TrEMBL record:
GO MF term (any one): aspartic endopeptidase activity, intramembrane cleaving
UniProt subcellular location: Endoplasmic reticulum membrane; Membrane
InterPro entries: Peptidase_A22B_SPP, Preselin/SPP, Presenilin_C
Any one annotated GO CC term: cytoplasmic side of endoplasmic reticulum membrane
Higher taxonomy: Eukaryota, Metazoa, Chordata, Craniata, Vertebrata
Main subcellular location: endoplasmic reticulum
Record-given protein name: HM13 protein
A Pfam family that the UniProt record links to this protein: Peptidase_A22B
Keywords: Endoplasmic reticulum, Hydrolase, Membrane, Transmembrane, Transmembrane helix
């Protein structure tokens, strides 16, 4: 079976609602439909991507920190693309919502990368919390609050200086610094940086736990493959299982 899809009522209802939002976005390009798509993409990105250790996360966030600062302050490419490219690659927040209501047209923007990249680091800290087996999510809650603080600081600075701000300039120090301070206070810095999540089987993530051993010469392996292909497949008889 190459393709085997199973649908239930919930899937069909979600498909119908998603189709309505998709048609709404294609026809109107409304900011609410854009944000719904952006949130869906961000949630899928955080779910599908994951980091294996804190060191890798710090290097990734540090590199994107420099990248974001350069392309926002050094050039106007990032701001120009974000304003001109109409696609759900960003979340928009209407600044004239109280004046124009749902027809607002003056927006502040937040790129999906500013959500997904810190999000996968916060998810890594949640797995680290679980690995400690203390029934607490201290590092997850700390990094979550740090993200909210960094985002709020970004909006505050943007309103003060009336200029586009690279969100990672404030999010990266907050998301790394706050959990690190907690780890220093609890004496768990070594455990944090030595933690490896690649050895764990994450929920909804199938992994190959063992590899088949192959022995013999290439000629013998080719002959065995030809014999398997030439033998007709027999349908396995299923015996009724006892309930």
């Amino acid at each position: 079976e190459i393709v085997n899809y199973e649908f239930d009522t919930k899937d069909l209802v979600c498909l119908a609602l998603s189709s309505v939002v998709g048609v709404w976005y294609l026809l109107r390009k409304h900011w609410i439909a854009n944000n719904l798509f952006g949130l869906a993409f961000s949630l899928n990105g955080v779910e599908l991507l994951h980091l294996n250790n804190v060191s890798t996360g710090c290097i990734l966030l540090g590199g994107l920190f420099i990248y974001d600062v350069f392309w926002v302050f050094g050039t106007n490419v990032m701001v120009t693309v974000a304003k001109s490219f109409e696609a759900p690659i960003k979340l928009v927040f209407p600044q004239d919502l109280l004046e124009k209501g749902l027809d607002a047209d003056n927006f502040a923007m937040l790129g999906l990368g500013d959500i997904v990249i810190p999000g996968i680091f916060i998810a890594l800290l949640l797995r680290f919390d679980i690995s400690l087996k203390k029934n607490t999510h201290t590092y997850f809650y700390t990094s979550f609050v740090a993200y909210i603080f960094g985002l709020g600081l970004t909006i505050f600075i943007m309103h003060i200086f009336k200029h586009a701000q690279p969100a990672l300039l404030y999010l990266v120090p907050a998301c790394i610094g706050f959990p690190l301070l907690v780890a220093l206070a609890k004496g768990e810095v070594t455990e944090m940086f030595s933690y490896e999540s690649s050895a764990e089987i994450l929920p909804h993530t199938p992994r190959l736990t063992h590899f088949p051993t192959v022995s013999g010469s290439p000629a013998s392996l080719a002959d065995s493959m030809q014999q398997k292909l030439s033998c007709p497949r027999r349908r396995r008889q299923q015996s009724p299982s006892a309930m």
